[in-house]
Amino acid sequence: MIIEETYGLTSFNGFFEIPIYRLTNEKFEVELSSYITKEIPYSKEDMEKWNPGKGKSMYDQVWSDIKDLSEYNWKFNEIIGWITLHLNHNTVIGEIFLKKAKRIVKNSRSKIKFYDCAFKIPFNNQDSNQKIFEEMLNEINKVQQMTKFKNRYIDKSKFELIGPHIDWKNLYKMLNK
Predict the structure, then answer these.
(1) How does 62-73 read in b/e, with b if 16+ C-beta sit within 10 Å?
(2) Contact 90, 114 (CB under 8 A)
(3) Distance between CA 158 and CA 97 in Å, rounded?
(4) Which residues have C-beta within 8 Å of that of residue 110, sequence separation ≥ 6?
């Protein structure tokens, strides 16, 4: 059973994709807040002086309106790449796909292309599902430590949430039919 062809150099069964972000959501919010603050030509205190009792709420409303106008969602717009997990017989392969740009900035329009094979994990039928999951997670954590990804955010949250509950051995059997 083939789920999908990969985008890179291999044509193995892909079964999980982990997003790589330009920055964390928290850092994005700080960056967005700084941008919005620069867009408003007056401070909250000035607004309160001009409109006693209403100024702060008016400022907050202007701030909120500018944020809404930006219509910029971190989760879908700050992705700069993916780690895709594939299976080739008894080996899990992690491939990295990244935006091809010297400098990745907000609103980057560069295309996401194959970057590197991050890891290959052989396993056998004696390995437990927990061991297989832990080895994959360990390899993904190693990718985060690579120089290229030090200031990036690899969102493992979904993988960490469902990974321990997946019967990896049966999934591999199904994918190798």
Answers:
(1) bbeeebeeeeee
(2) no
(3) 18
(4) 99, 100, 101, 104
- Distance, CA of 9 to CA of 17 (rounded, Å): 16
Report the SS3 class of residue 113.
strand
Dmax (CA) for the chain in angstroms is 73
pLDDT in tens, the chain (177 residues): 343 444 444 455 678 999 999 888 888 888 888 888 888 888 888 888 888 888 788 888 887 887 777 677 777 778 889 999 988 778 888 999 888 765 555 555 677 778 888 899 998 878 999 999 999 999 999 999 998 888 899 999 999 999 999 998 888 877 776
pTM value?
Answer: 0.76
